[in-house]
Design brief:
Length: 291
């Protein structure tokens, strides 16, 4: 009598024999009850930068319109920047708009021409007429002061606001700007005498006003020194006109007679120089990126 075999043995006997050349089955993957060692966390990828709305990917950044080296201020202008710049522009408009009238008044009403602009020719003519009995030297000197200094505080203000950036944009100022570190070290030892003799220097008076504001001179100090210098300049011209007398009167009357030709000559000599200075590239101040 045979003994029945267990079911496990029967299943083993009934298994198909291995096929020659077949690879043996690999080890089974561990079940959930026997987890393997944890793998280190992979570094998370940085999120891609978002593309601004309305701009294509990889488009170049738009240039800031205020980042222009030809502008005296940095970035978006403040209210003070706009007011000062507008006042300086209007002063230029005033000069050119009144030029024909001033020329015509030199030989007839030079004191009025003095009040308008304080021009050299008007001061000499007024003093010459004073010698001939038309007016006094005191009136000639007092009338010259407002015409000479009326726009000087604007350039002092520009120097206080913008400093070297505005100074380098003015015609004839490159040499002055080069020596500004020495001027700032000297302080009032340089700026005070410079303001007094600004009318006698071979540079525009506006440049001296900008330098004074940039160097930190107070406005009241600048006005006092500026008035002293204007009085000295007007006194010298009045003395010249009083000495010339009749000859200066004749010359002034000739200028008034040919005022339109004189005006056109001044424009022809001045405008090309102004246009060339505007086309000249303005270098950004040292240590600044021009923005």
């Amino acid at each position: 009598m045979s003994v029945p075999e267990p079911e496990g043995a029967q299943a083993a006997d009934g298994a198909a024999p291995p096929v020659p050349g077949a690879s043996a089955p690999g080890p089974s993957a561990p079940g959930p009850s026997a987890p393997g060692p944890a793998a280190p966390d992979a570094p998370a990828e940085a999120p891609a930068p978002a593309t601004p709305v309305g701009r294509e990917p990889h488009a170049p950044a738009r240039r800031d319109p205020w980042n222009d080296p030809r502008l005296p201020w940095h970035g978006k202008p403040r209210t003070a920047d706009i007011l000062c710049w507008l006042a300086i522009v209007l002063s230029g408009v005033y000069y050119w708009a009144t030029l024909p009238l001033r020329v015509s008044l030199v030989g007839t009403h030079p004191v009025v021409a003095e009040l308008m602009n304080g021009g050299t020719e008007s001061i000499i003519s007024a003093a010459a007429l004073a010698r001939a009995g038309s007016g006094t030297l005191a009136v000639v000197l007092l009338a010259a002061l407002p015409g000479l200094v009326k726009f000087d505080p604007l350039y002092w203000w520009a120097g206080r606001l913008w400093g070297e950036r505005f100074l380098t944009a003015l015609p004839g100022s490159r040499r002055v700007a080069k020596h500004m570190p020495r001027v700032q070290r000297a302080g009032r030892k340089f700026t005070w005498p410079a303001v007094v003799v600004s009318s006698f220097l071979p540079v525009p008076r506006a440049i001296i006003g900008v330098v004074a504001g940039w160097a930190g001179m107070r406005l009241i100090t600048f006005l006092i020194l500026d008035l002293i210098g204007a009085l000295l300049w007007a006194g010298m011209l009045a003395g010249l006109g009083y000495t010339l007398g009749h000859h200066a009167v004749v010359a002034a009357q000739a200028i008034s007679h040919y005022n339109w030709w004189v005006t056109l000559g001044i424009v022809a000599l001045t405008v090309p120089f102004a246009v060339r200075s505007q086309r000249r590239p303005v270098a950004a101040p040292a240590g600044q990126d021009g923005g």
